[in-house]
Amino acid sequence: MISINRQTTFSWQALGSTSVNDFFFSDSGQTKHRRENGFGYAFDYNRNGRHLVLDLSGIGRTLFFRTAVGFQTRVNYNRESLLVQYTTEPKPKARIISFEIYDYPSILYDWQGRARLANNEIQAIVNLRHQIKLDGGFDNGYERLFEEEFGAKRQPGFNCVVTNNCTFAGASGERATYNGKVYGVATLNPNKMFRIFFLAQSFHGVFDLDFGAGQRYPRVSPTALSAARVAQAGSCNLASPPAVCNAPLDPGPGRMFSMNTNIDYRPAAPLDLNLDFTKQRLRRNDTGLLAFDENIITFKTTYQFTRFVFVRGRIDFDSLAANAKAQFLFGWTPTPGTVFYVGYNDDVNRRGFNPFTGQLEPGLRQNGRTFFIKMSYLVRRGFGS
To answer: How far apart are CA 222 and CA 210, in angstroms?
Structure first.
């Protein structure tokens, strides 16, 4: 990192990787175990003033860049972004304590120079008295998908419409959409007992990648629906042409709604109760069908008897998996390195699908339960000469 002045810094890093691994080659559609080299970089230029913030950053990884630790969402990309943020002078006694607004354009392109994603987000933030914060903004952009990101790349002269056995259905190995979202955020912390967070987002033009969401929400693209109708009619057999029965991926845009609500309640210093609810729903434009509709509910509570003794409970429910998990834990941690835990885990399905038979099972079904005890003791002993 280089400190240019009191307000401005510049940092950068570059990494090279050499690994022997399984690599997929989209031109041939084959996975080969071989040695490949990769390159990755990142940089950040930041000017943090009293009211104005400028931040220019970028990150990139080549196709065969690999790391032994960490999590990589994708490779073969470069992403550059610019953040311009302005904040007013805080006025603690005014109704509006401060106001912030920022513009955040970004672009993502691969090492072949093809643009994959471009977005521009504008957000306004208002800080009010009683620790109330209101955010709102919108985002507009453009996104492209290429079939070599998902599987084999079609070869020149290959008629995918007739054979229907390419990675993407149809005559094109590319999908593109203009997308956008509008969102609002509210954070309220009126006193020491309550904290409420709420986020709602509405998206248009967001891609359904056509993977399906389990047996509860099978694929709803035109290609998948056509193949399902043929299969249901019993017309698929070894003599059937591939164009009738195969269902390649057919990504398409749709509308999505997402929301998250988190309520934290602390009626007394030792007790903390937290309830979190998240909902996501995506509906495709071309077929008008739901790609998925998921609700996730999490309840957590902790009671701190003393500085060293506590009990903790957590329950998670996922409507898409029709699954509920629970964990209850008693802990005693008198000194660092010396701990004693007693816990119980439970895992059940409610009207879920059997993982072995694929059949719908009514009512509650036990997947597993665990009772455990964990103890450790740190021995401190010095050995003198």
So the answer is: 10
As a whole number of angstroms, the distance between CA 61 and CA 68 comes to: 14
The gap from C-alpha 209 to its chain's centroid, in whole angstroms, comes to 14
Q: How far apart are CA 170 and CA 172, in angstroms?
A: 6
- Whole-number Å distance between alpha carbons of 282 and 273: 31
Say if strands 2-3 and 8-25 run parallel, antiparallel, or are unpaired.
Answer: antiparallel
- Taking the C-alpha atoms of residue 4 and residue 10, their distance in angstroms, rounded to an integer, is 7
Query: Closest Cα to residue 243, out of 226, 221, 260, 258?
Result: 226
- Dmax (CA) of the chain: 86
Q: CA 261, CA 188: separation in Å to the nearest integer?
A: 12
pTM: 0.85
Whether 100 contacts 87, CB under 8 Å: yes
Measured distance CA(351)–CA(368) in Å, rounded: 16
DSSP letter assigned to residue 84: E
Which ranges in 107-219 belong to alpha helices (H)? 160-163
CA–CA–CA angle 59, 64, 68 (5° rounding): 80
Beta-carbon contacts of residue 264 (< 8 Å; ≥ 6 apart)? 194, 195, 196, 272, 273, 274
Residue with tokens 């998948």: 224
Structure tokens at 278: 């998240």
As averages over each run of 10 residues, the pLDDT of the chain (385 residues) reads: 90 94 88 93 94 96 86 86 96 92 96 94 94 95 93 81 80 93 95 94 96 90 88 63 70 97 94 97 96 96 94 95 93 89 92 75 85 88 60
Q: Torsions phi, psi of 234, nearest 5?
A: 75, 25
Structure tokens, 2: 């280089």
